[in-house]
Known about the structure:
Low-confidence stretches: 1-10
Largest sheet: 2 strands, antiparallel
Distance between the termini: 74 Å
Shape: elongated
Oligomer: single chain
Strand order of the largest sheet: 1-6
Number of strands: 6
Strand content: 5-15%
Structural class: mainly alpha
Helix content: 55-70%
Amino acid sequence: MGLNFPVNNETIAWDELFLEILRSDGVQRKLLDEKFNVSTIFEQERLYILLTQHLNLEKKNNKEQKLKISKYLNKRIRVSKTRFSPLINIEIDAFHADLAANLIDRLIKISNEMQVNIKTRQMGQKRQFIEERIEEVKVALASAESRLQSFQERNRRPNASPSLLLEESRLARDVTLQNNLYLTLKTQYEEAKIEEVERTPMVETVDAPIPPLEQAGPRVFINTVMTAVFSFVLLFMSLFFKEFFKPIRA
């Protein structure tokens, strides 16, 4: 399946970040706590319990269970991305067809929530920084306006002197600069507040996961035949070398 990311001008490459989130241990731990149903008879059960039963790890200690389950998932969850494309491909092998598709759905959901949380925190930090800058610019703007007002009160006819006209122009330019900066910061502040509250999903599913129509493995019949052939060859070779190197008695 593939995922498409909107193109933006943010400094963070969100598609690359999402790829790393998908591969992270944090996502794996959250995925193991998710509940799935692999049968219409039984109720939903945590993935950790399902894999513990599937791998026959009930009698193992907790540390060994986590280690084996982690290795099992790392081998069966494959995430890849082409270098110049925002599309990410996810493949999962599972012991049940519906479980494989549901795992991908849940993996995307968990990873997206983590990415949205990261962006929300980033927007919160950005909003706080802009808020502090607005207060600084407000003080600078008030100071610039006060200097311009004081100059105009002292000099009723600045046009009479080129130096006074130049000074008034400089003071007015400073007021305009601080005012434009203040308006820009206020605009960015409102945008940051909206993005901080807005928790829109950052990924779009291009091809939804579909449960496989047939089992890909293990190939029981082929494995059985190969094992039988290998055993026969091994037995034949053993008997051959046994007879070949048999000592000749006089």
